[in-house]
């Protein structure tokens, strides 16, 4: 289904002229959301039925507080259009979706993201593209946690010289010069385009990217048949107190959104990234710390880690199963998270490791993957390939 | 979430009951227990015959009792052989785990994860990280167990509420019994001996639960807790002082009454602020141990072999043989018969009023069990529709599945037919992906969904 | 004397807060990590650490003093501050010190006395920076060896200066105060309890004399130190929270712009459940001009004060401290935020590390 729709979209995506009165933002909330009296959309999941505290490690727990706030259907839909529109980049050749590609799990399948074109080729950035599922629950963004809100995060790649390379003026001029966008911003915000409103709309759209209907979720809600016997074994190893995977990848989000030092190896270019520690020189606790990623749809976003150090999930599980710090870069004085530290590596059995990887495929759920706009107010192609 | 708050206030009831079809299921000696657990229905009791079970058991459904049958010294033995991870883990509410000998697991012996209304009884747990560890449970009973050899706490009640710990034996652990970040607990008639520290009541910073209070420790025998602390160096348990009968570090409103506390080398009872262990602080914690009530205990032979930082501290004050040591800035604490108790740091404590006695307290559990919100059928139908169905269906257009309008037309006046289909869908149209079965939502929810879709849902 | 007082505050704060009851690094012995109990292994690791942290050699008084001036306040950078303080200490070797004050004035060498006290103060500050670098839990032999070596180096440097100023202590109250500060600061880590206890007793004696002799010396530093010690110690070891609070109040009057004093006094009030006074003092702390403090001290103090505000249910104030702190961090990106990683497995961070500041509760 999905690929077919995409193929059609891509074929038809050759410069539609922007006709301002043809543009209409959705008045309905996205799937899995209900519209409240104030006109905003509220997420609804089966986890709402549980009164147990959030992040308790069991299967039937409440979700943590949604940090993104709520948005109107119009703001969400405008965010969707902007997300796919290269108009936000300086050279009009990149959109958010250039790296966060729907057909690649909202990532790009690369060890490291591609950025702006310098000379003949695109710049390779130092880190990989994180997926976007359930980001509305996160208290921090980017691999090193440097942004604290979706709104703040959304503007970082826009203005980064090595990414979309734009400026506040560049973004605002392009949007204000486009009558369709002026109308759409008026519909969504009753105000003209501005960089702040671009951030809000992108935040609204990204907060709507939720994934809580995987086979694991059906198991959690009581459908024992939703997981295969091997996946159940994997889940049990995952949540047990030897593996302790679930202490940081806490269900139902499968992350605690913390910065954590796990002793990640240097990448294939020999670069040892200091992560959050690079933002805080000589901060021992944060040297080599990266944000704990969600494991939802993790099978869709190989390679893994902040610079694609691991090609497969088997390699990742093997990494965690080994001695603490065994792959940590030479000379880095890391304060490795105590769960990795205290057990000298969990030393799970081979079967446990294979089963954990099998379990991770039960976290796939892309039913709420957003629809790629058929055309854009800019007249540009929605997903320019990089 | 606004909806949730609004809804949970409407109606509350207990989750007990609905055991209409309860059955007993017997596991023959040495067979695979998990197989029987998977077949069991809520309300069933699984009886495990004596024998050795080299396996782990996980329970993710409510209201299951799993009981090891015992014939003298012949137990149902769960043996981790030092290669398996955990003995028994349950996330289901209203679980009972009874009568097992659990030994040689690398992780925990018996654990609950977010399970309310649990009972863990008559087990013997030997050698584990935590012996018995209910985490995030509301309303539970831990009774008649023996725990030994845990690298942290033998019985570790973590971030829970309303838990009774009765008549257990704990020896050879770093900590015998512990209430950590727990509200409303009663430990009574336990025998706690030969641990590094006997009973600890703690408020640990950096955890999601931010307080600990209303903990009663009564009628226990707490003796000879002097063994070397053998916790892993990097763990917080490695900083637990050795030679302590009872340690109170952080919680408020604690009652220590009518215990026999003897021969604990550093001190009988320690009352201290959170900062004692050099822990990082948490602005959302109150670090002081307030309102400790210490009355009618029998002390003897404590503080005669002081060790560690705490021992050094007491020595600096020129004291020894202490029953009670109070450090820090706690307020509102009291000591009954202060003249008969060798204490240090209790100058500002009052003499306990006899009315503070907890001798009559029978339980810390909630009568009738823990509550959870109940939703009306309309709410259940609408919310489940939104949470599950809208992923694939929209009202008036085709998404991954047909439109709700066409489904409404198909099942007009035929709710049963619709329920039958969504419980076990079959592929009807080649151009749509197969729908996953929804039977797990349960009869009540399915009825509610059908009613909502056929009678309420509009464009 | 221009620089010492304010610079010292951090040292003294952490000294008193952690005195006695914090775990010294060697508390790890008896653990399962038997390497730590092996003296040969430890010696080897410490020798490696000493080699690793060696500073570039600097020759000549002027160059050393210049290096000192350039880096001695970089509390956010353990390595470069260490080398700067070392350079300053070495420079003093070439500076003679009169033992007779009148003679000092006659020979115009008052500056020399001041310089000695100032460099000693920087060493004491460095103890504070090191103490903050120790983690709550054991974190590996390389780091603990490095800190051990730095600690011992700083101790040796400080003692060399103290030996030179010892003769003038009866005549110069400021020198006495610094001796007390040394006794407190240098025993926070890497010190057996008996030794730390003796150092504390000696410090208390010096501070009592200093307060009687010259209460206004170093803007009330004696009162700040003694006040904190008396608040932190249990009564049975000589603690006296009420007198401690009186002394801290005097320190606050003498130096109302010092956030470190605010921090200590707010916490002392809270220990006595004087919440109204604590809240009023927090309000006063919000009015203090950030430019008056070392950047690192400012962001550390405001973080701590914000945490105290939270404990007092003053979410608005906590937000204001957080905002001020963020402003300072934005203009001085080199400062350490001291964000914490999840130490206890379930996440839940310090409210200053990434949560919406309106959601501090």
From TrEMBL, chain A:
Alphabetical list of SUPFAM superfamilies matching this protein: Cytochrome c (SSF46626)
Q: Name one Pfam family in it.
A: CCP_MauG
Q: Where is the composition biased (Basic and acidic residues)?
A: 101-111
Subcellular location(s) of the protein: Periplasm
Q: Does the keyword Signal apply?
A: yes
User: What sequence ranges are listed for the domain Cytochrome c?
Assistant: 229-364
Which terms in the Gene Ontology molecular function aspect does this entry carry? peroxidase activity
Q: Which residues form a coiled coil?
A: none
Domain of life assignment: Bacteria
Q: Which PANTHER family match?
A: BLL6722 PROTEIN, CYTOCHROME C PEROXIDASE-RELATED
Q: What is this protein called?
A: Di-heme cytochrome c peroxidase
Species, as recorded: Ruegeria spongiae
From TrEMBL, chain B:
Q: Which organism is it from?
A: Ruegeria spongiae
- Note whether Heme occurs among the keywords: yes
Record pathway: Protein modification; protein ubiquitination
In Swiss-Prot or TrEMBL terms, this protein is called Right-handed parallel beta-helix repeat-containing protein
Alphabetical list of PROSITE patterns matching this protein:
CYTC
Positions of the Cytochrome c domain: 376-457
The UniProt keyword set, sorted, is: Heme, Iron, Metal-binding, Repeat, Signal, Ubl conjugation pathway
Q: What is the lineage of its organism?
A: Bacteria, Pseudomonadati, Pseudomonadota, Alphaproteobacteria, Rhodobacterales
Indicate whether ATP-binding appears among the record's keywords.
Answer: no
Give the signal peptide range: 1-22
Q: Which NCBIfam families match?
A: beta_helix_1 (TIGR03805), para_beta_helix (TIGR03804)
TrEMBL record, chain C:
Q: Any idea which UniProt keywords this protein has?
A: Signal
Q: Where is the signal peptide?
A: 1-27
Q: Which InterPro entries match?
A: TPR-like_helical_dom_sf
* UniProt cross-references to Pfam families, sorted A to Z: TPR_19 (PF14559)
Q: Disordered: where is this region?
A: 342-361
Q: What is this protein called?
A: Tetratricopeptide repeat protein
Q: Which organism is it from?
A: Ruegeria spongiae
């Amino acid at each position: 289904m999905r690929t077919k729709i995409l193929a059609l979209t891509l074929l038809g995506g050759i410069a539609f002229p922007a006709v301002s009165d043809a543009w209409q933002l959705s008045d309905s909330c996205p799937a899995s959301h209900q519209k409240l009296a104030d006109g905003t959309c509220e997420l609804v999941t089966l986890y709402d039925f549980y009164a147990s505290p959030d992040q308790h490690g069991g299967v039937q727990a409440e979700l943590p507080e949604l940090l993104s706030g709520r948005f109107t259907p119009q703001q969400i839909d405008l965010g969707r259009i902007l997300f796919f529109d290269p108009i936000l980049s300086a050279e009009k050749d990149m959109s958010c979706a250039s790296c966060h590609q729907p057909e690649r799990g909202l990532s790009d399948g690369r060890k490291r993201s591609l950025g702006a074109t310098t000379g003949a080729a695109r710049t390779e950035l130092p880190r990989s593209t994180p997926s976007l599922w359930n980001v509305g629950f996160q208290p921090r963004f980017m691999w090193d946690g440097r942004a604290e809100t979706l709104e703040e995060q959304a503007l970082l790649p826009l203005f980064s010289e090595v990414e979309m390379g734009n400026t506040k003026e560049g973004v605002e001029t392009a949007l204000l010069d486009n009558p369709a966008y002026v109308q759409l911003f008026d519909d969504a915000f009753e105000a003209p385009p501005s960089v702040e409103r671009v951030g809000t709309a992108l935040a609204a759209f990204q907060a709507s990217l939720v994934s809580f209907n995987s086979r694991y979720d059906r198991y959690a809600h009581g459908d024992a048949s939703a997981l295969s016997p091997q996946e159940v074994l994997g889940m049990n190893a995952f949540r047990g107190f030897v593996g302790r995977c679930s202490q940081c990848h806490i269900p139902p989000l499968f992350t605690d959104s913390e910065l954590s030092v796990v002793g990640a190896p240097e990448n294939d270019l020999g670069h040892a990234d200091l992560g959050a520690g690079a933002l805080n020189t000589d901060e021992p606790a944060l040297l080599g710390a990266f944000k704990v990623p969600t494991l939802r749809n993790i099978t869709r976003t190989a390679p893994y880690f902040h610079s694609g150090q691991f090609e497969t999930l088997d390699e990742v599980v093997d990494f965690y199963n080994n001695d603490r710090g065994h792959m940590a870069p030479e000379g880095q004085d890391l304060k490795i998270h105590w769960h990795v530290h205290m057990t000298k590596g969990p030393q799970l059995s081979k079967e446990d490791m294979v089963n954990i990887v099998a379990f991770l495929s039960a976290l796939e759920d892309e039913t709420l993957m957003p629809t790629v706009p058929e055309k854009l107010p800019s007249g540009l192609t929605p997903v320019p390939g990089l | 979430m606004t909806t949730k708050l609004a809804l949970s206030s409407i109606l509350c009831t207990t989750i007990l009951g609905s055991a209409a079809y309860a059955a007993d299921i017997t596991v023959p000696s040495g067979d695979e227990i998990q197989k029987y657990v998977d077949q069991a229905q809520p309300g069933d009791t699984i009886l495990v015959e004596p024998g050795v079970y080299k396996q782990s058991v996980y329970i993710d459904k409510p209201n299951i009792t799993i009981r090891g049958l015992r014939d003298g010294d012949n137990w149902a033995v769960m043996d981790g052989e030092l290669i398996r991870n955990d003995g028994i883990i349950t996330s289901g509410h209203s679980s009972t785990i009874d009568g097992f000998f659990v030994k040689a697991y690398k992780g925990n012996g018996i654990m609950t994860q977010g399970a309310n209304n649990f009972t863990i009884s008559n087990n013997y747990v030997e050698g584990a990280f935590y012996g018995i560890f209910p985490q995030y449970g509301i309303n539970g009973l831990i009774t008649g167990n023996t725990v030994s050899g845990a690298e942290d706490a033998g019985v570790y009640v973590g971030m829970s509420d309303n838990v009774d710990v009765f008549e257990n034996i704990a020896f050879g652990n770093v900590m015998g019994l512990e209430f950590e970040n727990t509200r409303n607990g009663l430990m009574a008639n336990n025998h706690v001996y030969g641990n590094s520290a006997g009973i600890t009541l703690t408020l640990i910073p950096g955890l999601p639960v931010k307080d600990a209070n209303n903990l009663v420790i009564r009628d226990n025998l707490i003796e000879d807790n002097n063994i070397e602390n053998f916790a892993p160096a990097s763990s917080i348990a490695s900083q637990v002082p050795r030679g302590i009968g009872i340690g109170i570090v952080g919680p408020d409103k604690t009652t220590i009454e009518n215990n026999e506390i003897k021969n604990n080398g550093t001190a009988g009872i320690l009352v201290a602020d959170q900062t004692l262990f050099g822990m990082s602080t948490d602005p959302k914690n109150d670090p002081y141990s307030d309102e400790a009530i210490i009355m009618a205990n029998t002390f003897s032979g404590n503080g005669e072999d002081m060790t560690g930082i705490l021992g050094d501290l007491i020595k600096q004050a020129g004291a020894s043989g202490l029953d009670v040591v109070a450090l820090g800035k706690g307020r509102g604490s009291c000591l009954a018969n202060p003249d008969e108790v060798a204490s240090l740091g209790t100058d500002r404590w009052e003499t306990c009023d006899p009315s503070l006695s907890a001798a009559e307290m029978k339980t810390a559990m909630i009568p009738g069990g823990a509550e959870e919100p109940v939703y009306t059928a309309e709410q259940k139908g609408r919310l489940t529709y939104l949470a599950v169905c809208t992923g694939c269906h929209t009202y008036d257009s085709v998404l991954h599945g047909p439109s709700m309008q066409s489904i409404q037309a198909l099942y007009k006046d035929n709710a049963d037919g619709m329920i039958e289909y969504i419980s076990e869908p079959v592929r009807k149209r080649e151009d749509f992906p197969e729908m996953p079965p929804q039977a797990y939502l349960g009869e009540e929810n399915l009825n509610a969904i059908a009613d909502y879709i056929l009678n309420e849902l509009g464009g | 004397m221009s620089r010492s007082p304010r610079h010292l505050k951090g040292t003294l704060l952490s000294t008193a807060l952690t005195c006695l009851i914090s775990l010294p690094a060697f508390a790890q012995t008896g653990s399962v990590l038997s390497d730590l109990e092996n003296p040969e292994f430890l010696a080897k690791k410490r020798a490696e650490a000493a080699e690793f942290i060696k500073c570039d050699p600097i020759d000549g008084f002027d160059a050393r003093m210049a290096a000192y001036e350039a880096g001695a306040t970089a509390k956010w950078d353990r390595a470069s501050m260490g080398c700067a303080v070392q350079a300053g200490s070495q420079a003093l070797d070439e500076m003679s010190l009169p033992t007779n004050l009148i003679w000092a004035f006659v020979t115009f060498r008052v500056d020399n006395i001041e310089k000695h006290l100032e460099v000693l103060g920087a060493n004491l500050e460095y103890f504070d920076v090191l103490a903050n670098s120790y983690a709550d839990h054991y974190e590996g032999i390389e780091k603990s060896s490095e800190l051990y070596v730095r600690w011992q180096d700083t101790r040796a440097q400080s003692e060399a200066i103290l030996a030179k100023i010892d003769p003038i202590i009866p005549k110069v109250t400021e020198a006495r105060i610094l001796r007390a500060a040394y006794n407190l600061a240098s025993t926070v880590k890497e010190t057996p309890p008996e030794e730390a206890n003796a150092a504390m007793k000696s410090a208390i004696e010096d501070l009592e004399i200093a307060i009687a002799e010259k209460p206004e010396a170093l803007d009330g530093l004696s009162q700040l130190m003694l006040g904190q010690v008396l608040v932190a110690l249990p009564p049975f070891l000589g603690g006296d929270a009420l007198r401690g609070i009186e002394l801290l109040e005097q320190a606050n009057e003498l130096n109302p712009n010092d956030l470190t004093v605010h921090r200590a006094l707010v916490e002392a009030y809270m220990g006595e459940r004087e919440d109204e006074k604590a809240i009023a003092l927090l309000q006063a702390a919000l009015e203090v001009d950030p430019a008056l403090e070392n950047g690192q001290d400012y962001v550390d103090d405001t973080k701590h004060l914000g945490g105290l505000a939270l404990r007092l249910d003053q979410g608005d104030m906590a937000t204001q401290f957080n905002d001020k702190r963020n402003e300072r961090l934005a203009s001085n990106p080199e400062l350490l935020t001291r964000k914490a990683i999840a130490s206890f497995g379930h996440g839940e961070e310090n409210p200053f590390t990434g949560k919406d500041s309106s959601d501090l509760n």
